[in-house]
Amino acid sequence: MKRQTVGAQIWLLRIVVSITLVIALLNTYWVFDNRGMRLEILDRQEFVKQTVPLDKINAEVIQAVANMAAARKDANLADILTRQGIEFGAGKKP
Fold first, then answer.
1. pLDDT digits (tens, 9 = 90+) for 2-45
2. Is the Cβ–Cβ distance between 65 and 72 less than 8 Å?
3. Contact present, 94 and 87 (Cβ < 8 Å)
4. Alpha-carbon span 93 to 87, nearest angstrom
5. What is the DSSP string of 24-57?
6. Using CA atoms, how far apart are residues 94 and 62, in angstroms rounded to an integer?
7. What is the pTM of this model?
8. Domain coordinates in residue numbering, the chain
């Protein structure tokens, strides 16, 4: 009877060790996967951080082009701006 109990304990120990090993391997995989995701997020944040100042420059360029189109009464340039969704004229800001 004692021999059967020891055998059962050994099998139970093997099962527990196997499950622990699988959990440790999964944890290692998830740690590296999270690190990759964090690096991707940091890259995206850096991109956003670098493009924010470009929005102001972009708005200034559009404003200058719209002012030039209005001052010169350039229908072609006004048409290009309108097709891009930029409305300008009396009381409107690009």
1. 777 888 899 999 999 999 999 999 999 999 999 989 999 999 99
2. no
3. yes
4. 7
5. HHHHHHHHHHHHHHHHHHHHHHHHHHHHHHHHHH
6. 7
7. 0.47
8. 2-83
